[in-house]
Design brief:
Order of helices and strands: HHHHEHHHHHHHEH
Strand order of the largest sheet: 1-2
Number of helices: 12
Strand content: under 5%
Structural class: mainly alpha
Number of strands: 2
Largest sheet: 2 strands, antiparallel
Shape: globular
Oligomer: single chain
Length: about 300
Amino acid sequence: MTQESWGKRIWKLIYPGLTYLVICFIIEVIAAVWIAFSTVAKYDVNSLNSEMNSIINSMLEQTISVALELQVLAAAITLPLLILYYRRDRKREEQAGQMHRFTWVPAWQYLLAVLLGMTACLAGNNLVAVSGLYQVSDTYAEISEMIYGGKLAVELVGLGIIVPVVEELIFRGLMYRRMREYLNISTATVICSLIFGFYHGNLVQGIYAFCLSLLMIYVYERFHTMLAPILFHVAANLLSVIVSETGILDGVYRSAGPFWLTTLAACLVLIGTVYLIERMVHSEEILPVEEIREEEEEKE
């Protein structure tokens, strides 16, 4: 088989994410144009020049107010394309004789991936909060206000389910799996996690996303299925939305004692969950009949 050039390899790594970004851009441009025309139409020719600044500010406010909805819409449009890319990769691997099949772990063990996602979210956010990184990131507050400023239903369905599925297909299902064709697990894990961190666009979310990506790749390699990191990511995002919008942990954050107790408990549960995954989750590769016979003959 002809070896791929580095240019083609890099293109294979970036075009799934580029697809999402391009669709986001197109959706945002269409929305911005529509908002501009609808806003300008409310003014007559004589008042346009005198009220231009207020018109521009109004258009910006309207665009920002629907930013979350636009992102969710773009993610929903991108999702079928990513599924197509993912299936095409699996078909290519099968045709090349490189398909690896693994035994399915019991369904209840996926609850460990959910628990790991929730505790990683809680511990990660608390540790980032006390690190002071919020103070050195100018864009974090603006992005948080934009993300958590929408309707709760949109946040739960969009940020909690659709966006995590899209991001997992891009970064773990396509990018990481493709990196594994050229790199070892450790190198691919670090590079993929760094890219995932940079993708979030600010220091606070970047460090948080990098750490979570390490764990999501870990559960992927333990369960050997995309369902595990997707459940992890969905659980983390849903908990983040619920805590931010309902304020159920506001009492914990008002004093140092409960805050550190909650953080310590989350870290201990996280470590314990990793221990349970190591001990209990065993997804083994299913070898072809020919390879099984060869192994048995070698043992004899």
